[in-house]
Design a protein that fits this description.
CATH architecture of the largest domain: Alpha-beta prism
Strand order of the largest sheet: 17-18-1-19
CATH superfamily of the largest domain: Enolpyruvate transferase domain
Helix content: 25-40%
Radius of gyration: 21 Å
Number of domains: 2
Number of strands: 19
Distance between the termini: 11 Å
Strand content: 15-25%
CATH class of the largest domain: Alpha Beta
CATH topology of the largest domain: UDP-n-acetylglucosamine1-carboxyvinyl-transferase, Chain
């Protein structure tokens, strides 16, 4: 399926109820399970990732398919390794290409028994759940934060707890801080000094908890605000003091003309009229914002240089390559080292002003949502496989319609 996007009359005011954070929701589901909580989580995400996690936790089977849900794959690998039984954990074809060896090796060091069903180092996995023994463990600090969070969450439930040393540069630090803060809500104290995180053996306490709304989802509204100087956007459900690293979006977008005001009515976005001539940023702590900011900079004709993108290669798709490919279709010629940086010097290339510009989403929800606001600048934008947005923001298309972007299904017959 494809959506052709077109701009209708753009309203001056828009009010949006943002979805719940899937990052927080999936961590809360793990902690709820580890604390044997009888309580339901309030404001739980209705994203595909969270539904996948719920499906496993509520299943009577020993074979689980989490689809494209990366957090579910990583968190459940650790969780099931300590639940007595034999488990098969698999996912989508893309998931089978996303490495998991670092996490599996770490768990096996703690006494787990995990085997690869197909390709060495990748899902699907056969997990023989058993009693784990903690102690000292060492991991590179630049691996996916989901590996580290998976280990941290089970740490108090294993014998002797865990003393985890992170070597080298530590990336996505806010996600680790989020995990530890949520663990504290469930009664587990941890200690992070330098490169060492210590989680003593202990017991989680069941609590009534509520998931925050999603700052990552808010980023697309910052993009829309940057592209529409006359629009005021009221985002509901965000916390000014947030556990989410992506709440940094409010300061990032100041350079692109968006100011943020917090009030009892919600989080109000409006245009300041001040846009930087160039933009530089290290996304080491907020990699999920890179696509949104890259597309925004191009649409505003703001040359940029991004660094700290090393985890983008192993996301739902290779996001660096995807950005280069799809922005080129709109006439923006980006470059990068294909490892951890991406830049645009303002150079334009030929593109079609009349034929449809079909944006491939690569089964990546953030590609669809980051590119949709291009409809304000281009009248011929088509989004391929638009329903990938259900991974994190199921009501995205209904919401952007409120901001004047009309979505019509393309007849591909």
């Amino acid at each position: 399926m494809q959506y052709k996007l077109s701009q209708n009359d753009t309203p001056q005011q828009v009010q949006i109820q943002l979805p719940s954070s899937k990052s927080i929701s999936n961590r809360l589901l793990m902690l709820n399970a580890l604390s044997y909580s009888p309580y339901e989580i309030k404001n739980l995400s209705d994203s595909d990732d969270t539904k996948a996690m719920l499906g496993v936790l509520n299943s009577n089977s020993n074979k689980f398919d989490v689809g494209a849900a990366g957090t579910s794959m990583r968190f459940l690998t650790a969780f099931l390794s300590k639940i007595v039984g034999e488990w098969i954990l698999t996912g989508s074809e893309r998931m089978k290409q996303r490495p998991i060896k670092t996490l599996v090796d770490a768990l096996n060091q703690l006494g787990a028994k995990i085997e690869y069903v197909e390709k060495e180092g990748y899902p699907p996995l056969r997990i023989f759940g058993s009693n784990l023994e903690g102690g000292d463990l060492e991991l590179p600090g630049n691996v996916s934060s989901q590996y580290i969070s998976a280990l941290l969450m089970i740490a108090p439930t294993i014998e002797n707890g865990l003393r985890l040393t992170l070597t080298g540069d530590i990336i996505s630090r806010p996600y680790l801080e989020m995990t530890l803060a949520l663990m504290k809500d469930f009664g587990v104290t941890s200690y992070w000094k330098g490169h060492v995180i210590t989680v003593p053996e202990g017991k989680y306490e069941a609590k009534v908890v509520t998931a925050e709304s999603d700052w990552s989802a808010a980023s697309y509204w910052y993009e829309i605000a940057a592209l529409n100087p006359g629009m005021e956007i009221n985002l509901k459900g965000l916390k000014k003091i947030s556990l989410q690293g992506d709440s940094k979006v409010k300061s990032i977008f100041e350079a692109l003309g968006v100011k943020t005001k917090f009030s009892q009515k919600g989080t109000i976005l409006s245009h300041s009229g001040k846009v930087n001539a160039k933009f530089r940023y290290n996304f080491i702590n907020e990699p999920d914002l890179a696509q949104t900011v890259a597309v925004t900079c191009c649409l505003l004709n703001v040359p940029f240089h991004f660094t700290g993108l090393q985890t983008l290669k192993i996301k739902e798709t290779d996001r660096i390559t995807a950005l280069i490919n799809e922005l080129k279709k709109m006439g923006y010629e980006l470059s990068g080292n294909q490892t951890d940086d991406l830049s645009w010097d303002g150079k334009r290339c030929d593109y079609s002003e009349t034929e449809p510009i079909v944006i491939n989403t690569y089964k990546d929800h953030r590609m669809a949502m980051a590119f949709a606001p291009a409809a304000y600048k281009f009248s011929n934008i088509v989004i391929d496989d638009p329903m990938v947005i259900t991974k994190s923001y199921p009501h995205y298309w209904e919401d952007v319609a409120k901001a004047g972007i009309e979505c019509n299904t393309v007849d591909e017959g």
